[in-house]
Design goal:
Blueprint lengths: L1 H11 L10 H4 L2 H23 L2 E2 L6 H11 L1 H7 L1 E5 L1 H9 L6 E5 H5 L5 H13 L4 E4 L1 H7 L8 E6 L4 H10 L4 E6 L4 H13 L4 E4 L9 H7 L8 E3 L3 H10 L8 E4 L7 E3 L9 E6 L7 H8 L4 E4 L11 H17 L2
Length: 339
Amino acid sequence: STWGFYFEEKMLNKKIIFCFGFDFCLNKQQQIGKITQNILLRNFSFSNKIYNWKELSSLQNETIKFTQKLKICKKTRKENSLCVIEGVKLVSDTILTGITPKYVFISDSSIKNKLIPTNLLEQLSKISSLHNNTVFLTTEQIITHLSDTVTPQGIVAVCPIPTFQNQLSDLVKQKNIKFVLILDGIQDPGNVGSIIRSAFAGGCDLLIALPNCCDFFCPKVLRGTMGAVFQLPIKFVSSFEQSLKFLQEECGVPLSNIRAATMSSSSNSVKYYLCDWTKPSAIILGSEGNGLSSIVREYVEKNIIQSVYIPMNKKMESLNVAVSASIILFEAQRQNNSK
């Protein structure tokens, strides 16, 4: 219709005119939907002439709905062993680690505006040619729907959650573990993401997650790690005792070298820089709100596990747990590099 043509041209010129107050428009809901769909398909043609990717323009698409559920639901992530990542650098770095995304969604506008680097587009084209229906060309609306950030970068991907079985097996076989970080019930995703990033940067060999930690593969943790979560071996255990057994029997870390950051300067506690981190060691970090779990505190109180602390201004009660982790991690790295 003439109205439909006029409405479409205004949409394309980004001069959208809303006329829903008129009976004339209220009776044209289906026509509006068809016109909008035609606009989306016509806009897609630019990038698809180059990449020939499947187009998705509906929020009701099953793949879109599944991805959205992965983003918000820990249970869905766990059941499917999949997680959602976003952003140019995180998607690119994850692919470089050897992980092949199950799905990748790219907004056509981000390609038109050259927001996606050519090398990443080439990588995705190779992946798409090997795995059909892996890369989808979509709209800004869908990217915003799937994104967990305020300003999406035009690309979202669904990736398999690594099991770390091969890495853990290699570590055990080589008996070359120097430093292990143990997280005890840390629930803040921002802190967990920062700790994992610092652990990987600081040369940590292994991260052990005790019960009650947050989901390591929720969007906020994934962004905070900057891809380190896909490269640093992580072992999830059901109890503290299981972690002790694994460390001693399989990793070669003696009980005497397993320490807990209590931030207590009591006579039984040792300053972190006075500890010998050059031998296979592990450090346990508790949450900011609750500190170490009761079972870990019991081991510390009985002097089975050594207490360590970071000296600081007496007017300040504690440090952010991610900051504490970084201080100890890089002291351990300093000692090992100066040998």
